[in-house]
Amino acid sequence: MNISWVQFGGYVELTITANNTTLTDAIKKYAEKRLSILDRRFRDPVPVYLQIRKEQTKKEDERFIAEVTIRLNRGVIRGEMRGDTPYTAIDHVSDTVTRQISRYKNRYSDKNRRDVEGGLGMAIAEQLAQSTETEVEDSGVTTLEHGQLVRTKRHPVEPESVEDAAAQMELLGHNFYVFRNKETKEINVVYRRHDEDYGLIVPEDAEVSN
């Protein structure tokens, strides 16, 4: 794994890692240039992690993946985009996380602007100091009846309200979000419906007949 670290002139501390591809000086400089725009979005130190990796896919324009992770007081901003080169993937993910930061600030501006723009609390800072990984990923391939399971991700699930879970789903740009319900302590799934409203999946134990 190739690793590069850079401190911008303001508050963003960018760490770049590369898997299954070479992190060249040209790629590092390009990533620093594209993500330097984030430096104007925060007023306190914020670690930003960029992972660039290459996968063997059928579509050549999706072989390179750029994933950006930013942990803040009230959630995680994460974007993952693909491209035919590391440069196009970086372009796409830079635009994605910039939009997510804008949505994040708009949501919490009336609640606690200082927390939003401030970045990390002490507990999160200590956690990130121990590891730059926000999730554990298994790359083993499992053959299923109608295809292959090519990747498994494991990430911590913290108690959240349904409202906060829906907001986090929007920040991540996903259609669903798995979380632990703060009230019931159970694992729930919030998702966006076709009519643009939200739905909630609450698991129940199936009845077992003797």
Give the arrangement of secondary structure elements.
Layout: E1 2-7, E2 12-19, H1 25-35, E3 46-54, E4 64-72, E5 75-83, H2 86-118, H3 122-130, E6 136-138, E7 142-144, E8 147-149, E9 152-154, E10 159-160, H4 162-172, E11 176-181, E12 187-192, E13 198-201
Parallel strand pairs: 2-3, 10-11
Antiparallel strand pairs: 1-2, 3-4, 4-5, 6-9, 7-8, 11-12, 12-13
Helix pairs in contact: 1-2, 2-4
CATH superfamily of the largest domain: Ribosome hibernation promotion factor-like
Question: What series of H and E elements makes up the topology?
Answer: EEHEEEHHEEEEEHEEE
Weakly predicted, low-confidence segments: 110-136
Number of strands: 13
Number of helices: 4
The major beta sheet can be summarized as:
5 strands, mixed
The share of residues in helices is 25-40%
Count of domains: 2
Write out the strand line-up for the largest beta sheet, numbering strands in chain order.
Answer: 1-2-3-4-5
